[in-house]
Amino acid sequence: MSRRYDLVVLGMGSGGMPAAEFAASLGLRVCVVERHRVGGDCLWTGCVPSKALLAAAKVAHHLRTADRFGLPPSAEPFDTAAVWERVRAVQRQIAGSDDSPERFRALGVEIVFGEPRLTGPRTVEVGGRVLPTRFVLVCTGSRPATPPIPGLAEAGFLTSENVFELAAAPASVVAIGGGPISIELSQALCRLGTSVTVLQRGPAILPRDEPELVALLAGRLREEGVDLRLDVEVASVVEEDGDKVVAGTEAGVPQRWPAAALLVGVGRTPNTAGLGLEEVGVATGPRGVVVDERMRTNVPTVYAAGDVAGRYLFTHSAAHEAVRAVRDMFFPGRGVVSSLVPWCTFTDPELAHVGLTEAEARERFGTKATVWRFDLDHADRARADDEALGRIVAVCGPRGRLVGASALAAGAGELIHELALLVRQRDKLADLSGLVHAYPTRSTALAQLAGEATFAAARRLRWVTRLARLRPPW
After folding, report:
1. Is the pTM value of this prediction over 0.90?
2. Of 49, 59, 223, 259, which residue is the least packed, with the fewest Cβ within 10 Å?
3. Torsion 378-381-386-387 (CA) sign
């Protein structure tokens, strides 16, 4: 008779790994079913390889622009084959340590490789083997969406899944889509010597972020050589003379964009097919498996977390959701997930955000919304590091409480968490000025911004000091 498990996890990526480790730490009998490789998108096609590529691209950019620091610049071309090999070396290092199957087996987690399928609310079948379980957690992630563009499939294209399988960077790229993945890769490729054109359907790239910060970043990308084309409607793709040619319109005017390779980054599609969800009665929608605030589906024994649940498509939110889901399974009611999820686009400078944007706050709070801005050309560390392009935007609601923040800065992904804590605690921006920040650090800019809010409050209390001057000192 098959072993009975407390939990069967489908997928061993950003959600499945921490869920399995947490469940094992509770002494539960855990089995994870993985159809490909341990580590998921984050290790093999997402965060890890892209950040390794971005790191190399940043060094390349520093070499070419070393005169900014009083050093001789280098115009020598780069061996991008070595860069791609270094990306794969980083992946192998992580796969052999933190994401190693042996590490999880040592924790007591059983790993089964194959295609999983729910055959009931408490059973999962893999290659003819039935896994009985108390609960199922679906963490199968997502994959790059493919737009219905005539000729695209025939011409062939790159996505975040296969771009790191290249031997080296292509000579030229047309990137379809102006979201985070496309923009990060476009800047990296451009810095490594690839000619890059980005085609964005709307009026701006990165539409979920603060428009004023996006505009600053777009200016930087254009300065570095990324050709940003906005208000583009792609009509078709053809192959001509060895190139892939995208045909369409830009602001209504017909255009053609040739390149050696195409990069498609137009969103993600949840991996729900073939899991047997419909047969078991689990509700799904356009964004994936339908879940509540505790990551429960409409079938009480089945939970879902991460990209497949369509809530936030980030590695960090997948881990949070999956661990909270396990907590709710075995400690019912204790697994409510946070609705406050910061994010970061890892361009240079980085663009990070948490909570409400300025537009959202003004719509919700009207005249009670206030916005504070601090430009990094007033931050000593930013000027010393030649990283003065950037701005921090803090959005406050009633009573001065911080309700959202955005930052365009070097290390913005690190800075945003201090602001996220204020939002979570419903604290005022001015409260941050009471925390002494080490100087000179990037986070000193946060203290300067909070100081401005504090000084503004102090100016409203001038009448108190004037009144005190009228009183005798005895």
Report:
1. yes
2. 223
3. negative
